[in-house]
From TrEMBL:
Belongs to the LysR transcriptional regulatory family. GO terms for molecular function: DNA binding; DNA-binding transcription factor activity. The lineage of its organism: Bacteria, Bacillati, Actinomycetota, Actinomycetes, Micromonosporales. CDD domains: PBP2_LTTR_aromatics_like (cd08414). This is LysR family transcriptional regulator.
Amino acid sequence: MELRQLRYFLVVAEELHFGRAAARLHMAQPPLSQAIRRLETDLGVELLHRTTRRVGLTDAGRFLVQRARAILADVEGAGHEVRRVAAGAVGHLAIGCVGSATYSLLPSLSRHLAVELPGVDFSFRGEMLAPDQIEALRSGEIDLALLRPPVADLSLTVTRLRRDRLVVALPAAHPLAQRRQVRIADLRQAALIVHSADRRSVMYDVVVGLFRDAGLDPRIRHQVGETSTLITLVAGELGVAVVPEPVTALALDGVVYRPLIRPAVTVDLALAHRADRSEPHLARTITLIRGLTGAR
């Protein structure tokens, strides 16, 4: 039994007239009649009562009408869904975000994804350090990662999205909070709050490298895993922190941000995914993220 035969039969059953059915199908009547005969032969049952005046449905024919409608509707629905999958309009993606992207990019990104790709089910994991994101990409726990390079894993495709300036987060009562900008040398005696070295944070290496390049030993007082915790400790006057500028989106009472100069350092924000992944909905999401961040 072929889908074409079912379509022919359903039109004949709705018209109960071979001539009108043939006209509706834009075909000659004899081939249509032959197709219905072949369907009856294939099934081994009579579907239509035929006389010189009229065509009627047998019990088997009435049953097949209902099944044919359901089958053809399923086929049509499946075709629609297949086209949507091919167009990248449906699927599921999990996105991991480094701390600064969690607060600066994720709110806007989630809104745009909901509008542009409403058929894709997105989930998000914020406050992930780059090493954790890389492991999650490898295992399939997440599909895309917004992270800080470098990424040495050749199984991942990494695209730079933007460069973020570094700023200094200071307690509002700190003497340096009165300045318009801050140098690394100004922080030689400051108690530092940094991301955790144990968790191989990229920002830990960046901050420590800045001090050592300036010939200074960083006075690290606290190491934390999350950006929100880091800024909360600054608000509690437990130290100062050097962070990417997008962290300023995390506004807390008692915290001020000042540009870091001499050197005016930037850090990259990148998008990473497994190189063996090429699903249409993944590609559309990557394109949307690149456009949202102004990446070329």
